[in-house]
Design brief:
By secondary structure, this protein is α+β, with helices and mostly antiparallel strands. Among the domains are: 138 residues, no CATH class; 144 residues, Alpha-Beta Complex (Aspartate Aminotransferase, domain 1), CATH 3.90.1150; 89 residues, no CATH class. It is 42% helix and 20% strand. The chain has 15 helices and 21 strands. A five-stranded antiparallel sheet has the order 8-7-11-10-9. It has a five-stranded antiparallel sheet with strand order 12-13-14-15-16, covered by helices on one side. α12 runs parallel beside α14 and α14 crosses α15. The longest helix has 52 residues.
Length: 617
């Protein structure tokens, strides 16, 4: 083995166990059919497809008769067609129907016994004739006997030397081919086993070499290698072997608290495709954002710490990125502690978000984010169920050995809180959809409107108490609709599905979405009619008009003119309006104007209609 060729020579040896089909000259080797006693070889003759087909057809007629293709169904069951032809032509149809005796039936035991008694003597006779012919053939093939041995009379008791007849050459060649073929198959199987074993040993050797090469590279990059803890169940008594057989990689900062150093560990993988394994890796990065709102838009800048590339083979870079994650988590923990103690700024702190009003018009945000966006509601339910189960176990264990029963234990379940939260989530989504429809309808009509929707309005300690207190608690939120900076609609909701409308004249509990839709339509109609009345009083101050709301319409009267405004809705909650004017110019029929939302805003159209009516009067 040389340096240029590190592979051993025995691995390069290629043995072919297949049957040769060509000789050294490249000519095809014919198939041996037989060998004559003189040693001549008889090879298999090659036939063309047409000759083979002709032979097969000839055999069909020779073995099955010349009328093979002319046979009918009766011939298959042993009925002769000639017998049917020999029947008289004058016979009736009933004579042609086969009788029950002519239908083939299964043989009984007695018939089978009689047939056996009839056939067995003939078979024994044929067996004797074949045995006699075999003995005669063996005596002929054994060769002529020595005349001297024939002349000598054999004694009554003498040794007889029996020589084995020479085997037939063709049979011997066939047996040799069978033996060689079986040996070839056994050799192929053995070679396959040796090959798979050698490949497995080679893979293990390469994996072991790679393991220690990676360890040396990590140590050369000045990463800390510490002994791994002993496996679970290891002997720790006096005199036991307490030396570690493995090591772990420590990539945390030396000055970090122990809780962060224990998480900042990794180990080289001995199984699987991954080179290095991070058991406490959380895939989180620190994002820093700065936003400055202005009159026209909001400018924002953000920075994310580098992410890890799982496909990268550079162990040093992957350890650096993992170390960045550990440092980010420690920095974020310190920011959480200090955010509530800032003397000149206010901060809002949650589990993964810190929002600070650093200066007037400048917001600073620190956030721990993940790489991929996933639906977290299922994961939340999974962990909440585990928390509720552990909480139930703690309640049961606390009651053991004492007669005192904890309050609320009978009503505590692990599924009902989850159902309540899911119902509340769907309820909030449906309510928000209905409120958004109203906002879109108002904006389409040119009326500026805003919606402030808060699904969960409780503070953080109240949310945490849902998982710790035994008493049943609920969560709630609110929604505020502001219409044209003039009117406000306030709604509050409580889990699982309680909605309350706080109006100026009353407080109503809404039990269904159609009721909510009708309430929104009525309140928006009232707000718009009041807004039109306000416009009319401003524009018709000169003529001295009287404006008031009667039922579901806005009525205006002054000398020589009556003007009515009505609000209507279509199936998509689009807002429509009509103005009816009755004065001297319109006659008794009056004049009606229909509002078109694609041309003008609603209040602009109403102001124009009021001006036209006042000018005609």
């Amino acid at each position: 083995m040389t340096e240029a060729d590190p592979e051993p020579q025995w691995k390069k040896l290629k043995l072919s166990f297949e049957r040769p089909y060509k000789d050294d000259s490249g000519h095809p080797i014919p198939i041996l059919y037989d060998l004559t006693p003189e040693g001549h070889s008889i090879y298999e003759l090659k036939e063309t497809s047409s000759a083979r087909l002709a032979t097969n057809l000839r055999r069909v007629f020779q073995e099955r008769g010349t009328d093979f293709f002319d046979r009918d169904e009766n011939a298959v069951f042993g009925q002769s067609g000639n017998a049917a032809d020999a029947a008289p032509q004058g016979s009736s149809v009933e004579d042609t129907i086969p009788s029950e005796d002519s239908v083939p039936k299964a043989m009984t035991v007695e018939e089978l016994h009689n047939m056996r008694l009839e056939i067995l003597p003939q078979l024994f006779t044929a067996l004797g004739e074949m045995s006699l012919a075999r003995d005669l053939l063996n005596s002929i093939l054994s060769g002529p006997q020595d005349p001297q041995s024939q002349s000598e009379a054999a004694p009554l008791l003498s040794a007889t030397l029996v020589t084995k007849p020479p085997p037939i050459v063709s049979v011997q060649a066939f047996n040799s081919q069978v033996t060689i073929g079986s040996k070839d198959e056994a050799l192929r199987k053995a070679a396959g086993l040796f090959k798979s074993a050698s490949e497995s040993m080679e893979r293990s050797r390469l994996k072991g070499e790679k393991y220690w090469v990676d360890a040396l590279r990590i140590r050369r990059a000045n990463w800390g290698l510490t002994p791994a803890p002993l496996p679970m169940g290891s002997v720790t008594g006096k005199g036991a072997d307490k030396t570690s057989k493995d090591f772990v990689i420590s990539y945390g900062l030396e000055g970090s608290p122990p809780i962060y150093r224990r998480r900042a560990v990794a180990h080289l993988s001995t199984t699987g495709d991954a080179d290095i394994v991070f058991p406490y890796h959380q895939n989180t990065r620190l994002r820093i954002s700065i936003s400055m709102p202005s009159e026209s838009s909001t400018k924002s800048w953000s920075f994310d710490s580098p992410t890890i590339d799982n496909a990268s083979k550079n162990l040093d870079s992957r350890l650096k990125v993992a170390q960045t994650e550990a440092v980010d988590q420690e920095i974020f923990a310190l920011l959480v502690q200090e955010a509530g103690k800032l003397p000149t700024a206010s901060a809002r702190v949650s589990e993964r978000l810190i929002a600070i009003d650093a200066a007037e018009g400048l917001d600073l945000t620190f956030e721990l984010t993940k790489y991929q966006n996933k639906e977290n509601i299922c994961e939340l339910i999974y962990h909440v169920l585990r928390v509720f189960l552990l909480r139930r176990h703690s309640i049961v264990n606390g009651e053991r050995g004492s007669e005192r029963r904890l309050p609320g234990k009978e009503n505590f379940t692990i599924l009902q809180p989850v159902i309540d939260i899911l119902q509340y989530r769907g309820f909030c989504e449906r309510v928000e959809v209905e409120l958004q429809k109203v906002i879109r309808a108002l904006e389409t009509s040119g009326i500026p409107s805003t919606l402030s929707f808060t699904a969960v309005g409780e503070p953080g300690h109240h949310i945490v108490s849902l998982f710790s207190d035994l008493t049943k608690k609920s969560v709630g939120g609110e929604a505020v609709i502001r219409i044209d900076n003039w009117n406000t609609l306030w709604f509050t909701f409580v889990s699982p599905s309680t909605l309350t409308a706080h109006l100026t004249q009353a407080t109503l509990t809404i039990s269904s979405l159609p009721q909510l839709t009708q309430l929104l339509m009525d309140e928006i109609e009232r707000c718009l009619l009041e807004r039109i009345c306000g416009l009319g009083r401003e524009l018709c101050d000169v003529v001295g008009g009287i404006w008031f709301i009667d039922s579901n319409r806005c009525v205006a009267r002054w000398e020589g003119c009556v003007l009515n405004f009505r609000i209507s809705y279509d199936e998509h909650l689009s807002i429509g309006c009509s103005a009816f004017r009755l004065d001297s110019s319109t006659g008794k029929q009056g004049h009606t104007q229909i509002y078109d939302s694609s041309k003008l805003p609603l209040l602009t159209w109403a102001a124009r209609a009021i001006k036209e009516s006042s000018s005609h009067s």
